[in-house]
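Researcher: Here's the sequence for the chain we discussed earlier.
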Amino acid sequence: MSSIYKLKSVTIDFSDLIIQYPNNVVVELSLSESRILKLMIENPGVIYTNEELERSGWQGRPVSVSSLTVVISSLRKKIELIEGIKIKNKPRQGYLLQTDLNIERKEVQDSNKFRMKKSNLKIHFFIYIIVMLILISIIVFFKPRSHLSCITIEDKSLCSVGVRDFNVLSVLDNINKGEIILKSDGNTIILDRFKRVKMSFKHD
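Model: Thanks. This is the structure I predict for it:
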């Protein structure tokens, strides 16, 4: 979840790092500016030391001595159009956010996380499609196939579908030239020389 703060007609969206003024005027915040402003706006009137603000703004990363001064100066300019809110300096103590405004806070779905979830869903869907295609390819490739095998002797043919039983070649003596015996599991078909069914019978 991310927080949106409303101060009069101004909206500060810490998820998208922007300050939205009326008339669609948008001021962008840097990440360090956003972190420091969020800390101060959540606790108006609280004095934060330089070390605390640096720790919040840069998450423990080493920064130059002037970094905090630059960020505070930039924030003052970016919020100067909001009447009734100021960042004040307390000598030898630190900074505080001074305001008499009613600050409204609203929790919303973090847009970045939402986009990440959508992206992850797309990736998972893509992976699912790839896996399904691979599985289908494996099933099709390894599906048992019926092979048609033939042997021809003296213009007489003996063919088998799914079986390779050519041990009974003597059956060719029972057909005429040009005719074909087609054997499959449980069936035998004799075709004449015009490839028409001449005889068909079942067997074990």
